[in-house]
Structure formats: structure tokens, C-alpha cells
Write a structure and sequence with these properties.
The chain contains eight helices and nine strands. With 217 residues, the protein is an alpha+beta fold. The chain has two domains: 7-123, Arc Repressor Mutant, subunit A, CATH 1.10.10; 152-216, Orthogonal Bundle (Arc Repressor Mutant, subunit A). The strands form three sheets. The chain has a three-stranded antiparallel β-sheet with strand order 1-3-2. Helix 1 (7-19) packs across helix 3 (41-53), helix 5 crosses helix 7 (181-194) and helix 6 crosses helix 7. The chain is elongated.
Length: 217
Amino acid sequence: MQLRMTNQREMILRELKKSKGHLTADELYERVKKFMPRISLATVYRNLEILSDIGMIRKLEISGRQKRFDSELEEHDHIYCVQCQRIDNLDIGPRDFDLPVEDTKGYAITGRRLEVTGLCPACQKKLNKTANIKSKGAAKMACACKKGELNDKQREVLEAMDKCDGPCASKDIAEAVGKETKQISCQITALKKKGFVDSPVRCKYEITSDGKSALKA
């Protein structure tokens, strides 16, 4: 097929080759319009399809992704990142393969396409960095919440409870420390989990022997 190379087609082909990558029509449009402000996105799409149909460029149709175009015509496969959509060339060796006649469903095989996916080095680095930050944060929280440790608010509640003559209600403790009952209830729940507070009477609490030891620590 004889194709007339218009200025538009030459510019699109030039920018694709210059990129040395796998651009979408939208990305090529952004590049080409710097030199041809009046060109439309539809024109870029149409010319890419034409150049692909006559074999001057390759069209990559990856499942569920926007079409991309490649100026490298030598046979090769591709690998793409499922995180950032980056695409790289992949050389996996000889492309010749044989299929038993019964497996071809009557087709005359003219080619093959291998789709390889993964995480590119940059995305792996980002994910590892995020995982490390989360891990350090979790370790820090775990350290701050050791069973035998008290924060200032918990110590304040235990001290007030230690001064009570027998089990006392959360509202009594709240009045003693000048806090709202809801705030005290949250601290009591945390102290019960640590074994520093017990509830021998419904809705009343008292400090345990472990709680007294924690106050002295």
C-alpha cells in the first residue's frame, strides 16, 4: 500500500520515535500539538491507526488498558506495570512455537502475543518504603502500648482509684480528676485490658494488685 506521508504523519512518527517508549494517542497528541497547534486528537488517533495498519509502527492492545504505540518494529514482547501502567520491552528468546493441530481450532497460526504483568522497580521501591513506614509505626505503637506501661492519663485514673475506699464508679473518678466521664471510661477500658483494673461490682471499679505495682514502677 502506497501511503502519502503528510506533515502530520511525519510529525507523529518523529515524536513516537523520539520518545523511545510506548505512548498513548493522548500522550502523542500533547507532544505533536506543540509544533502543530491546530492538529486535533481525532487526527492523531486516525493517523496512528493508519501507520499501524501499514506496518510502520506497532499497536499494543493490552487487556483493559488504553492502546499504546511502538516505533520498534523488530519482534519483541512487552511487560507492563499494574501500578503505574509503565511498559517496557521484553526479550524472552525464540518466538517460534508449535501447537498440535487439534489445539489450533482449525486456525492457521500467524503470530502470538504474550502478556506479562508485574510491578516496575520504581513502584516496588514505593511499596517497600510504605511497608517499612507502616511497620515502624506499628512497632512504635506496640512499644508504647506494652502491658506493663502506663501513659499519663491512665496513671492519673489509677491514682484516683487507689485513693477510693472500695470500688468506685467512673463518674466518681471523673469528679476526682476533673475530667468527663466518657474520657475516664475509655481509660478504664484500657486499664482493664492490661489487668490493672477489675470490676467486682457492676459499673464500679477498683485497682488490682498489678495496678498498684504499675503505679510504683
